[in-house]
Amino acid sequence: MEKCYIEETEELLSFIKGSPVKYQATEHLCKMLEKCGAVKVSEAHDFEFEYGKAYFLTRSMTSLIAFRAPKEPKGMMIVASHIDSPGFKLKPSFEKKSGDYITLDVEKYGGTINSAWLDRPLSVAGRISVREQNKIISKNVMIDRDLLVIPNVCIHFNRSINEGYKYNPQSDLSPLFAQGTSYSSLMKLLAAEAGVNENDIVSHDLYLYDRTPGCIWGSDNQFFSSGRIDNLSCAYSSFKAFAFAKPSECIQICVAFDNEETGSMSRQGAASTFLSDVINIICDKCNISASDFRKMLFSSFMLSADNAHALHPSHPEYHDPLNAPCLNGGVVIKFNAAQKYTTDSVSESLTKEICKRANVPTQSFANRSDVAGGSTLGNILTSTLPVLSADIGMPQLAMHSPYESAGVKDTKYIVDCLRQFFMTRIGCLCDGSYEIL
């Protein structure tokens, strides 16, 4: 495998390793932007604005938007991804006694493959809310060591487990944490990690995360595996592409939303006003009138970037035979007649042309006609922001497992595609006809 593909994937794996849950992932993307000269601002405060300079802001410490705007923008080029992954969240009160053991009380977040979480090293990460005099301060926390295991019941007590078993989230999926009566509580460990007094911790948003290291593998290092490839690969790739893209005649916007895995219905999800609020800020700073903004929408383009299902080597029957992408085959353009994906013939053509200019191959994904597909961000966003849109992603295996797999070449393919996208301008000639500038 060529060195350029290996290096890009190693960078992604390093990012994922330091991003056990969405709070740390957002924090790391912010640091990436700052290193490239972007300035952090806040929705709550006004800020000095400079044309062509990159800015970014967060909402709820988990959703992130970065943008650049020229003096006389000709349109908007938007990439939207999500930053959350399926897993397990600790409940408000979570330490419970079971015989001589202490386990943790958790609930599912998103559509997890339950069985894959058992018998592997786990730990805890997220954020805590801390009282400091009359203030409540949020702090990210991560326990960076093997801390928990969800143990399976041995086959001697469950002889039919290999014939199929339905795991009960309340009784089967509680991780083992401690034993006896003189153990260190999880809150004590988190307080030490954050450098605060345990009694000052008021509340928390804490999640389990898989400790299995990411790796590159295969006969010629063609593949890689890690937790949270869905969808940190697209979030990382889009913000890296934004950070290193040259300014253009368009407003460049890169956004990663929280809560896609649970329906996007939150103040920081794709169904919120976050993106439209930031666009309003940009229009105010650039003195774009409501009339000019409506016209600008027709020369704007959005890519909804969320990973796609690659052809499974053991189960090709699960896929549509003509629209089953392969690992290392390039950027996947996703289609759905019911508009769960936003791609149409126009947006597909423009996406293919952008990828061609970036020397990136493309492939298509559509579900079998008798299988219901999942949805993502694009259709939610375009219902209120009527811009041309296509759904794309990187092909992967084992989506929603705590340990997923993908192709090494595809990491670089999607970064190159998105960098080219940000430096492209789409001109609307008339409805349905566009030029790529």
Secondary structural class: alpha/beta
Radius of gyration: 22 Å
Which blocks of ≥5 consecutive residues have pLDDT under 50? none
Gross geometry:
globular
Assembly type of the chains comes to single chain
Total number of strands: 22
Which homologous superfamily in CATH is the superfamily of the largest domain?
A: Zn peptidases
The number of distinct structural domains comes to 2
Average of pLDDT: 96
Question: Could you name the CATH class of the largest domain?
Answer: Alpha Beta
- The CATH topology of the largest domain turns out to be Aminopeptidase
- The amount of beta strand, in percent, is 25-35%
Q: CA-to-CA gap between the ends?
A: 34 Å
How much helicity do the residues have?
10-25%
CATH architecture of the largest domain: 3-Layer(aba) Sandwich
Describe the strand arrangement of the main beta sheet, using strand numbers.
Answer: 1-2-3-13-4-14-18-16-17
Major beta sheet summary: 9 strands, mixed
Question: What attributes does this structure have?
Answer:
single chain, 437 residues, alpha/beta, Aminopeptidase, Aminopeptidase i, Domain 2, five-stranded mixed beta sheet, 24% helix, 29% strand
Structure description:
- This protein has nine helices and 22 strands.
- It is an alpha/beta fold and 437 residues long.
- The protein folds into two domains: 293 residues, Zn peptidases (Aminopeptidase); 124 residues, Aminopeptidase i, Domain 2, CATH 2.30.250.10.
- It has a nine-stranded mixed sheet with strand order 1-2-3-13-4-14-18-16-17, with helices on both faces. The chain has a five-stranded mixed sheet with strand order 11-12-20-19-15. Strands 5-6-9 form a three-stranded antiparallel sheet, with no helix packed on it.
- A hairpin with a 2-residue loop joins strand 21 and strand 22.
